[in-house]
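Hey L., structure's done. Input below.
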Amino acid sequence: MNKVAVIIGAGDATGGAIARRFALGGYTACVIRRTGNKLVPLVDTINAQGGKAVPFAVDARDEDQMVALFEKIEAEIGAIEVAVFNVGGNVRFSILETTARVYRKVWEMAAFAGFLTGREAARYMIPRGCGTILFTGATASLRGRDGFSAFAGAKHALRALAQSMARELGPKGIHVAHMVIDGPIDTDWIAQNVPDAAQRKAVDGLLSPDAIAEAYWNIHCQPRSAWTHELDIRPWNESW
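Output:
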């Protein structure tokens, strides 16, 4: 039976790298984002490298879509051993400019969708007594900067969800971990918007998506006698 890794938020950087790493490890990578045609390059790359990837266009904020997604994967592809929640939602507005719509949308993307992912993954993992659920956090998971009330609120909520799930599911054999990505990631957006991005990259001062993905893989492979719940990831020269 196929081993399956579900990556919710399989974008062009971190999410895609995570999908590639698990495919390299022998998993069928079920890659999910709202716009299905944006998954074509990732799926083609994984398949060209000898792995297997299956794309799904799903809005992770929609309960019915998420329930159907996990049902379909379990019925038609294989047992879900790994579920990764990697949806972002980073926006910056002053508190006076943060509308209720913005706050709610960011919470739905970065917190509520994480709840749906974790709940549906647990629904199938608990009877089997094993599995890994990984949540992507950020600097905002730990401290809220000015202008990031919506993002920090959502990421704090996601971290609390991960803590609660770890305590409930760990004794059932399911490894739940929260990954704090604390630093700039080597993406096109960073290259275009951070003036010294090229200089940082030259000295390994940007987080490599592939290196982040390797950390996720290592967390998944840990023996249960020494599980990590929270991992703080930053470049070697990033300030605290």
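Residues 3-232 form a domain with the Rossmann fold fold (CATH 3.40.50.720). The two ends are 44 Å apart (CA to CA).

-- N.
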